[in-house]
Automatic annotation (TrEMBL):
Domain Aminoacyl-transfer RNA synthetases class-II family profile: 1-152
NCBIfam families given in the database record: hisS (TIGR00442)
Pfam family of the protein (one): tRNA-synt_His
Protein name (Swiss-Prot/TrEMBL): Histidine--tRNA ligase
GO cellular component terms, semicolon-separated: cytoplasm
Length: 288
């Protein structure tokens, strides 16, 4: 109906806009304090950017993107998240030649065609930070501490931090062999989606929310117990850094994140899944 907003969208009315403005000001202040500069990226990008960057086996690419042909018959997609566009901008604008690390933040609307439920919309708002050119765990500690401080400033105190490592492409390849050996006897019991993931991205099966799949993967080998030496040292450095700052955490081996560009550290603050993030592959690798 023309008199109703499209399903999955929400008006922000004058009576509540002050709440949004307050949070946006706190975001800008927090990022300024930590040396992150704002970047603004297009609402739409070439579809291939998300297929290659986010991963063509992810639910976002397979099921949730708003994709269409423009008048030049080019495939265009409304951004379903912020990272891919920021990485594209970093490469396109030659920011690799800038003093490193390059630290950026964004506060955007994003679009995914998914089931509408409480707190989940098809047009939603996403705040994120990206740090390019920082290989060690200290940048992971910094970003986690930023989010912890942000919650403190907003008076959100009842949150707990879960962390994990999903390794690098080297140790993940070895782990995937073990995981496939474990899953092979139960392929007929996995959901249809997980059967398609088995060959191309078996790690994502651990992230499945179907009860049958969760039961099967409950006893699967843990990636964190199969890290290479470098990734193990990185994770130990992360834990030491958090402990030095007095930030409590729990290691949760089941956090794997759903997007292909994640590597090494992944984490989430738990309070109705209030915040989640992770480390990505180097920007240059995103163009492979």
């Amino acid at each position: 109906m023309l008199t109703q907003a499209p399903k999955g969208t929400k008006d922000i009315l004058p009576s509540e806009i002050h709440k949004w403005q307050y949070i946006e000001k706190e975001i800008a202040k927090l990022c300024h304090d930590f040396g992150y500069k704002e970047i603004r990226i297009p609402v739409f990008e070439h579809t291939e950017l998300f297929q290659r960057g986010v991963g063509d086996t992810t639910d976002i690419v397979q099921k949730e993107m708003y994709t269409f042909l423009d008048k030049g018959q080019r495939s265009i997609t409304l951004r379903p998240e912020g990272t891919a566009g920021v990485v594209r901008s970093y490469i396109e604008n030659g920011m690799a030649s800038h003093p490193q690390p390059v630290k950026l933040y964004y506060n955007i609307t994003a679009y995914r065609y998914e089931n509408v439920q409480k707190g989940r919309y098809r047009e939603f708002h996403q705040f994120g930070v990206e740090a390019f050119g920082a290989a060690g765990p200290s940048i992971d500690v910094e970003i986690i501490s930023m989010l912890r401080l942000f919650f403190d400033r907003l008076g959100i105190n009842q949150v707990s931090l879960n962390i994990n490592s999903i390794g690098c492409p080297v140790c993940r390849a070895e782990y995937n062999k073990k995981l496939k050996d474990y899953l092979s006897p139960n392929l007929d019991k996995l959901c249809e989606t997980c059967n398609t993931r088995f060959e191309r991205n078996p790690l994502r099966i651990i992230d499945c929310k179907e009860e049958a799949c969760k039961k099967i993967t409950a006893g699967a080998p843990a990636l964190i117990e199969n890290l290479c030496g470098e990734c193990h040292s990185h994770f130990e450095g992360l834990k030491a850094g958090l402990e030095n700052l007095g930030i409590d955490y729990t290691v949760d081996k089941n956090i794997v994140r759903g997007l292909d560009y994640y590597t090494k550290t992944v984490f989430e603050f738990v309070s109705s899944n209030i915040g989640a993030q992770g480390r990505y592959v180097a920007a240059e690798d995103m163009t492979d």
